[in-house]
C-alpha cells in the first residue's frame, strides 16, 4: 500500500472515530546540510536511500555558506531543543562542543572503526562516539598549471617562493585583475586556519593537553606574513573581505594564480561555468622558510540530534550516507575527500580528481584546530584578529598580543 492510500485509510478511520498507528511511510527525516558542500550532489545520495528504504522521506534543511553562519543557526535551534532536525552535518571542530551540550546522541563504537583514524578520533569524545564522518578535508594550494609552465615556475615549497612566483607571473601577464594569491581574510572560520598555517609551519602548537601553549614570536611572524602579501601586492588590497567561496569563485573565473582552498573547489573548476578547465593542479601548501609544510585538518561529520523523534531511523540513514559507497560517490561527483583510506586510490575517484591519489598523507598529517567545548570563543578571537590585521586596523604585534591575552582567559 502506498503512502497516499495509507493516509486515505487513516482519514476514513478517524471519521469513523478510531485511529490506526502511523506507518513507517510517514517517517520524514530532516537533514541539515552545508550549502557550500554540493547539497545537490548529496540530494542524489538521499534519493538513493529513499529508493531503497520505502516509507522514509528525506528533506534537506539548507545550512549557510560558512561554517560559523551554520553554527549560529544550529546554536539557536539546538538550544531551543527543537525536534525538527534529525541529522546534522557538522564541521569537524564541533563534535566536542555538541557532545558537551548534550545535543547529539551516541553511536556505537563499531560504527566508527572503519574510518580514517583522524576522524575516528575527532568524533570520539570521552570514549563516546558522538558523530560519524561525512567527508575528509584539508587545505591545499590550487595553482594555474598553464601559467606556472609558461613562466617556467615550479609549485612553490615556501611562502617566499610563492610570493616571488606570484610576482613574476602577474607582472608578466600585466593584467590588473589577476591576483597572485587568494586566501581567506574575512572574519570567518577559515581565517583561523589562515593564522595557524604559518604558525604551525614554524613547529609551534597552540594548545597542549588542553592548556594554551602560545608562541608570541611565531604568531607575529604568521600575521606579518599575510599582511606582507597585501602590502606587496601578492594578494589583493581587500583580502580582508574574502571568504572561502569567494576564493573559489575568483579562481574559477581565471583571476587568481595561487589559491588556498579546501577540496570541494576542484569539481567546480572542472565544471561548465569554469574558465580554468584543464589548467589547474593542486599541491601541498608551502612552508615558512626553514619550517615544515603544514595544513589544517577540515572535514564534516554527521550527528544525530538528541532531540530527534526518529533516533533509530536517523542512525540507519547516517549508516548509509557515511558508507564507502556514498563516500566514493561524493568524491567522484563533488570532489569531497573520502573518509576511507582505500578510496583515495580507487580508479574512478582518481579519474575524477587525479590529485586525490597523493592527498591521503596530507589528510593524515593535517593538524587539528584546538578541541574544546569553548571552541566558538577560540575561533572568534583568532578570526577577528586576523581580519583586523589584514584590514590594517591592528598591527601584527598587537594582534598577537590580543590573541594571547584572550585565549589565556578562554583556555585557562
Ligand atoms: C572547510 C573545512 C572545515 C572548515 C571550513 C572553514 O569546510 O572542511 O573544517 O572549518 O572549511 O571555512
Automatic annotation (TrEMBL):
It is found in: Periplasm. Keywords: Periplasm, Signal, Transport. Residues 1-24 form the signal peptide. CDD domains: PBP2_TMBP (cd14750). One of its GO terms (cellular component) is periplasmic space. InterPro entries: Bact_solute-bd_prot1 (IPR050490), SBP (IPR006059). Belongs to the bacterial solute-binding protein 1 family. This is Carbohydrate ABC transporter substrate-binding protein (CUT1 family). The lineage of its organism: Bacteria, Pseudomonadati, Pseudomonadota, Alphaproteobacteria, Hyphomicrobiales.
